Amino acid sequence: MDQVNLKKLAKELNLAVSTVSRALRDSHEISPKTKERVRELAEKLGFQPNPHASSLRQNRSKTIAVIIPEIENNFFSQVINGIESVTPDKGYHVLIYLSHEDYNKERDILQLLRNGRVDGVMISVSNTTTNMDHIEAWRQNGFPLVIFDRTCEDVDVPNIMTNDAEMAFKATEHLVKRGCKRIAFLGMAGNLSISNRRKAGYLAALEKYRIAAPPKVVELTAKDYINRDLLKQIFQEQPRPDGIFAAIEKFAVNTYEVCKELNLHIPKDVKVISFSNLQAAALFDPALSTIIQPAYDIGREAANILFKIIEKKMLMPYEKKMILPSQLIERASTAITS
Amino acid sequence: MDQVNLKKLAKELNLAVSTVSRALRDSHEISPKTKERVRELAEKLGFQPNPHASSLRQNRSKTIAVIIPEIENNFFSQVINGIESVTPDKGYHVLIYLSHEDYNKERDILQLLRNGRVDGVMISVSNTTTNMDHIEAWRQNGFPLVIFDRTCEDVDVPNIMTNDAEMAFKATEHLVKRGCKRIAFLGMAGNLSISNRRKAGYLAALEKYRIAAPPKVVELTAKDYINRDLLKQIFQEQPRPDGIFAAIEKFAVNTYEVCKELNLHIPKDVKVISFSNLQAAALFDPALSTIIQPAYDIGREAANILFKIIEKKMLMPYEKKMILPSQLIERASTAITS
DNA sequence: TTGAAAGCGCTAACAC
DNA sequence: GTGTTAGCGCTTTCAA
């Protein structure tokens, strides 16, 4: 199968290649008649311009990359959906890369893309990323880049995230008001700014409400998600927590599993609230109280901002650090029991 | 920031561009010494070859496209994960496109890609796709293409799917053996082969077990997922179903919601089983019996087969129609109640 | 073992 | 309003 190209169209129409090119791009210097003829034949032959040739020539790929730690996660799926809500209209294509929570992979992917394959990158960093040099290198090269959700404050790149600290405060406060005296925080190990923000909100709430029990910050890794021994241990200590604030959906799921195993009743023995974008949280036994992040909006806004950067438009101050609020939904897992 | 290119390397090393190119591609006709020198400088300057130039020249993009109906769906996320498990090692990049269950979008995306942007396509068709002309056109052009999950039998393209009919039979049989007398099938409207296979399995089981009540096939659309009136109606008819086999996860979730609303108890009043890849199904109230599809494996195998086609290797007969078995997990939603 | 040169398909600067 | 031409950065003959 031979591709139709400009040359073929030009020959068929007895025109110069450049004329055909201009006609198809609706240049004002081409006569309506010619445009019509060109478009007709292009349509008939199903002509599609070769993207590599134009990318090479124009030094612009019409492609962006999205780098995320994992994809089997409602939050990131929804983000991609949000991104995809703007890309087709812009004539852009979306490449997906997974870092699998591995700093080295993340750095290599970013390195791999430093050659014009994409016009810009959207990234949510892995939880093993402590060093922002790879991001900084991109920024210094003037490559368009935005960070979302798992951001890093100490680098001068647009951030799109949610009000983590505030919602963590509210979640903890919610547990306090439901009578919890010993509230544990389940976060992700690593130096993620997102974990730190959520932890800070948790600690602030404990302090405000003058909770007697010392804060209990538990930082779990991907391994602890599979092997739940560490989590189990927490519930076997005395006194055991009567409230769990999970900063990560997975750990809420784990908490449910462990509680079932240990015959601890939610919400009677322990109340649970979690950051989660799981649609089905309402169907859990018991229904899980959640803080829902505006994942779709985060994706959409992050993409819009990236396009502004690509198009060299000035960013509004609020676009350099955009905070989209989450929503707390109370359900049975934090209900008061008599 | 100026990109480093072959020309710059060549100049710096006092070599011809072609020599540098060959050295970097480890050609046997370049002396070890030269290779070493070239590699050293390339490393030092962080040289990355311009992908558009090589794609243009070699007529090969090192990129594949994945076209799926939606991404906020565990099954498809897992498929992408499976695909990504093979692409980086092959040096390939992955473009994601969403058809949003819209045939026209699907056709346009496929049309858009007929220009060398990608070396191959993996597709799971939308539920509004009844016409396979767009797929057929690709095949006839000799473009590498594989279809997964939502396949179409009537087109000569490699298919990767699960044993839908068999598992639908087993799911229905499972309900029968748990005492259900009036089993309804909830499927997706449209002419999807996958729905048809699952429906066929359902009907076969009813026939085998000589169920007196007539089959009840309910075909729902995306609208019915949002507005659950149609589903509610089914439970308000007399006699109402005492067993639900949902061919789509979403409709199982809807069933739970509607049952809660109507005060119908699962599994006492109605038992429910569903195709679903939701990790959290075990935490539902009650835990949902599921048929889990090997989504990750489907993605990985489909990608492997696509690469064989791209590399013009012969396919084994079983690779032209690969069926990866699903797994039925019994949980409380189909338990016998006394 | 290395170099020179053509050319992939497109766009854009410069004629006319 | 249309044509001619150069060149994007790379790979690949062909020549030396």
From TrEMBL, chains A, B:
Transcription regulation listed as a keyword: yes
Keyword Secreted: no
Residue ranges the record marks as coiled coil: none
Sample GO molecular function, one term: transcription cis-regulatory region binding
InterPro entries, alphabetized: HTH_LacI, Lambda_DNA-bd_dom_sf, Peripla_BP/Lac1_sug-bd_dom, Peripla_BP_I
Gene3D superfamilies linked to this entry: 3.40.50.2300, lambda repressor-like DNA-binding domains
HTH lacI-type domain ranges (all copies): 4-58
Record keywords: DNA-binding, Transcription, Transcription regulation
Record protein name field: LacI family transcriptional regulator
Organism listed in the record: Niastella caeni
Classification of source organism: Bacteria, Pseudomonadati, Bacteroidota, Chitinophagia, Chitinophagales
